[in-house]
Amino acid sequence: MKVTYNSLVNTVSNSIQANLKKLQDFQQKLSSGKNINMVSDDPINVAQLNILKTKKNQNEQYIKNIDKSLAWLDSTENNLSEISNTLVSLREVCIQAGDGTLNQDGLNSLLLQVKQLKSKMLNDANSQYLDNYIFAGLKTTQKPFEEVNDIVVYNGDNGSMLRNLSYDSNIEINIDGKRVFNFDNEVSNDPNVFQIINNLEQALKNGDVNKISSEILSQIDRANTNVFNLISEVGSKVNRLELTKTQLENDNLNITKSVSTIEDVDITDLIMKLKEAEMVYSTSLSVAGRVLPPSLLDFLK
Amino acid sequence: MSSSFFGFNIGVRALTASQKALEVISHNIANINTDGYKKQDVVLKTTQPEGIPQINRSISAGQLGSGVFVSEIKRMYDQYIERELNNELQNNGKWEAGIKSFEQIETILDETSDNGLRKMMDDYWNSLEDLGASPENYSVRKSLVENTKSLCSLFRSKYEKLQKLRQDINTEIELKIKDINNLASQIKDLNKLIKEISISQDNPNDLMDQRDSLINQLNKIINIDVKETSFNQVDIFIGGTAIVRENNNFMVDASLNAETGFYDIKWSDTNRPVEVKNGELYSLLNFRDVYIPDIMNKLDNLANFFIIQTNNIHKTGFGLDGTSTGYDYFVGSSAADININPDIDSDITLIAASKNPNQPGDNSNIIDILNLRNQKILDSNTTKPDDYYNNMIVKIGVEAQQCERERQNSQLLLDKINERKESVSGVSLDEELVNMVKYQHAYNAAAKIINVMDSLFETIIKDLS
Fold first, then answer.
1. Is the pLDDT of residue B289 over 90?
2. Which of A77, A127, B361, B408 has an alpha carbon 20 to 30 Å from B209's alpha carbon atom?
3. Which of B362, B363, B419 minimises the CB distance to A10?
């Protein structure tokens, strides 16, 4: 086979080109910090990456959801504690009154105290988190408890607020007013908490201390137990949310690792390869200088 | 007895032959870098010998040779290699045009960055999740509307860019058709010249080299068959129909199809379609008519999924005011015109998060819409929307990778073929120089013969005077 000058030139320039292309690839990877710059560089890994990245985005969103739910539950728990405190104060009033040692003046001053406690209770019942009523069921934009002629009515409903924890599981994060204050005999056959307070007021006015120490005191105790139960229910929900959050965060940590393994360049490895490619390139250049040959022309005189 | 001057004649012929050979060598060296040039060689033959055998033969022995002449100047050419080269050029053209289109598609879809549709869909779903977590919140609603608008505009712009790419390819097709006609007409002209020269028994080597180059170019664009006919002319066919027949060429037309808005490729005279099977034109047509429409179709399916499925659920829900219901969330019917319902854009309370009237804290309708993400509705109830899009991206990636591999293979083959072609037709300086020295010596020797003859005459003329 005849070897011509042109075929030598072609071979040399093709291999220089190929070496330069390799050098360029490494440089592109190093400068972008990414192994994959086009889908066609590595389609299968891009598919994997897309799935991982979407999963990570989703997890981040669920973590955001959980943070919101946690804030809501925190606020619920605080208000329930306040309500419980008020109930404890009411209980003390009952015990003081039931003692039998107070005259009507004493009972009247207790009545004032009860009136204040009642308005505090109503205030707590209508408390809001970020403009939304906590104990209103799903009617979150409307004041749930209203006092009409001393009678407190519930305008909310018993809808449950469900929040997504993952694509296939959710959690109910609200406690509606019916359950907190036993409206419509939701929890027990006792009258609702505001009615109990009304009864207490009436009994104080009437000096009916027997009714206070027997009936009303135990009703308040039961109401308080109910609130305690709700607080522990909230607590267990907070636990579940925090556990899920930790899982999601761990999950994302692993995903980040996998994404980085696929996508990010191994700098040391790449620099070694780059150096190698540089060496091959400069070798091919010097070879080219030597190979592009002297011709017969140099020897004909 | 031969003439006294006979020896002179032989010397002169030898001189002329060597000189011609040296001229051919000069031509070779001069064209060492000319594209498509094929090395030429002189073919030397002995001239007609003196005397015909006959009964009353002359007294001298045998047939006396009468010298040398250049019988032809031929080019070093291997038809088989040329055929292989042409075939591979068609493949090379096809894959090269393919890679160009793939690169553009990948740039348009831009899926390795965070500006792609996948990221935007993630953002959209996340905004819905946000709304699910606080359905009464105005700012969350606002951000959902904004993200929906971004998603819709991304759908539209990707779709539009793909359509634009089709139009660009269409323009390129028109240019290629012009190239084809131009090349065919040049080949026809060369055929005419080649015939004229061939009739007079000469070899139109340089013209044939030029024509080979043109045929190479034509092969890269479209699948052609080349057939040699009389007097070194060639006929060229595309799918069995002649585009060049000796000194005629037939025009190929890019005729605008009113229905598609794109060019159809037809024969001017018969109006029949041209059968494009390979070369750049094949890839361009394939991308314009099959591949890109397929991607656009998939985007349409995805957009339609969003529009129809979301609207079906959204319509049944209730807005923040507790009474408004029956609103579509999206308007439009394809990726080209998908948008958020302008009513919702102007009044974000209309987003129906709640399933029941008067429950602003309810998110169950949003949860239902979110569940669409995990429902296998697309691809005749087999695929989730995220997967549908991902599959599409990966399919394009794999095919682009495949195309690039084919291109590299074909480039490698082409290089090998060119190397072989070079070994047959290429000019080697060393070879030329060796030949140059050879013919130089032959020339010197022939001159010496004349010199000797001269001295013979001198003897005769001087000594006999």
1. yes
2. B408
3. B419
Which residues fall within 8 angstroms of residue B227, CB to CB, at 6 or more apart? B234, B235, B236, B237
B252 three-state secondary structure: strand
- Residue range A70-257 forms a domain whose CATH class is mainly alpha
Mapped onto helix, strand or coil, the DSSP state of residue B45 is strand
Given an 8 Å threshold on Cβ–Cβ distance, is B394 in contact with A44?
yes
Give the sign of the dihedral formed by CA B101, CA B107, CA B108, CA B109: positive
Tell me: pLDDT of A296 over 70: no
* Model pLDDT, residue A292: 67
Read off the pLDDT of each residue in A19-42 and give the average, rounded to a whole number: 87
The DSSP symbol for B49 reads P
Residues 6+ apart with CB under 8 A from A34: A263, A264, A265, B112
List, in order, residues 6 or more apart from A146 with CB less than 8 Å away: A152, A153, A155
Q: Which of residues 43-62 of A touch B (CB under 8 A)?
A: 43-44, 46-47, 50-51, 53-54, 57-58, 60-62
pLDDT in tens, B360-411: 889 999 999 999 999 999 988 999 999 999 999 999 999 999 999 999 999 9
Q: Where are the domains of chain B?
A: 6-76+426-464, 85-412
pLDDT of residue B61: 63
Give the angle B251-B252-B257 at the CA atoms, nearest 5°: 135
**Single-letter amino acid code for the residue at A278:** E
pLDDT at A301 over 70: no
> What mean pLDDT is reported for chain B?
91
A168 touches chain B (CB under 8 A): yes
What percentage of chain A carries pLDDT values higher than 70?
A: 97
**Complex confidence, ipTM:** 0.81
Q: What distance in Å separates the CA atoms of residue B69 and residue A244, rounded to the nearest whole number?
A: 99
SS3 at position A219? helix
A38 touches chain B (CB under 8 A): yes
Percent of chain B with pLDDT over 70: 96
- Domain coordinates in residue numbering, chain A: 5-52+266-300, 70-257
- pLDDT tens by residue, B303-321: 999 999 999 999 999 998 8
